[in-house]
Write a structure and sequence with these properties.
By secondary structure, the protein is α+β, with helices and mostly antiparallel strands. It has 12 helices and 18 strands. Helix 3 crosses helix 4, helix 5 packs across helix 11 and helix 6 packs antiparallel against helix 8. Bound molecules: adenosine-5'-triphosphate and magnesium ion. Adenosine-5'-triphosphate binds next to helix 6 and helix 7.
Length: about 350
Amino acid sequence: MPFRFKIKWFSLESMDVAIDLGTTNTLIYALGEGIVLEEDSMVALESKTGKLITAGKEVKEMLGRTPGDITIIKPMEDGVIADFKVVEEMLRYFVEKAQKKRLFLRPRVVVAVPSGITPVEKRAVINSVEESGAREVYLVSEPIAAALGVGLPVREPAGNMIIDIGGGTTEIAVIAMSGIVNKVSIKIAGNELDEAIQIYMYDKYNLAIGKVTAENIKKRIGSAHPSIKNEEMEVRGRDLIAGIPTKVIMDSEEVRESMMETLGLIKNAIKKALSETPPELASDILEKGLTLTGGGALLRGTDQMICGATGISVMLSEDPLRCVVKGAGMILENMEDYRELLMDSK
Ligand SMILES: Nc1ncnc2c1ncn2[C@@H]1O[C@H](COP(=O)(O)OP(=O)(O)OP(=O)(O)O)[C@@H](O)[C@H]1O
Ligand SMILES: [Mg+2]
């Protein structure tokens, strides 16, 4: 039957993908290939027409420097879609880039989403991914994907706690027997740390600095624990009183002080999740320790800070920015076997 043959032939040409659609970063894993794309979740549009100029890393370099005819949009906010149309265009651009312009049938897509996603937000993700060209869309919650990506035994009847600190959300989940037993998800993560640094510079030095500068300070000299070596950095911005460009020297101690309150909120969320964990699973967690993933986990001393706050050992994952997409990719590679890990898409 020619019709059958056609379908079979086409299915060989479908490049199925797994996507971590994060607030800060979007990563794509291609079936049989591995991670093929890592880009910033942002797009540059022509202001007049709304036409996409480019998306990803190139846009980050433009941040704070664009003329009026270019508008930059970060379409994800706190882990969920803030601008439906733009996410759709951004995904289409990324998936095409990942496919390197080769011609493929519409792909099957596994997307990692926050565990606290509402039915409306779920619908928005599914629609955006479908509109960007997907044939079938499957959802997996981020903590499950992260745990799988780190190599935790998510199917065993023992408890594992995963803490994913991203750009927009911190998700803390206890996973056992392929499901989330309890979780705490807060909209406080890397972005809020950057904002805390901006506010500190404003208050202490009357210095206005951009978001990118604040993030650079955090990455280069930031620390979450006093045991981390103190370092200094020259910070440039605009003096709010004189109105002219100026610079100050900042050190790790100050950066930690500026982020203290925000880090406190993350610590409290972890303690809350622990206090809500059933006793048997809590005892497993005490024995195995906590697992830390997400780009926010790269802030030096975060593991020591959490260990100090909880008294439980903390394992920092090897490749924190990629855990979620790796886990989603594992599901894509073994769809039948891992079906029970998928979220209900309704
Ligand atoms: N070396 C570093 N030190 C401190 N923070 C870092 C470092 N590298 C990346 N980050 C932070 O990690 C965050 C991005 O992490 P990640 O890519 O896991 O987030 P996301 O998945 O896009 O967001 P979310 O999961 O909240 O939707 C950013 O806030 C970034 O500043
Ligand atoms: Mg994430």
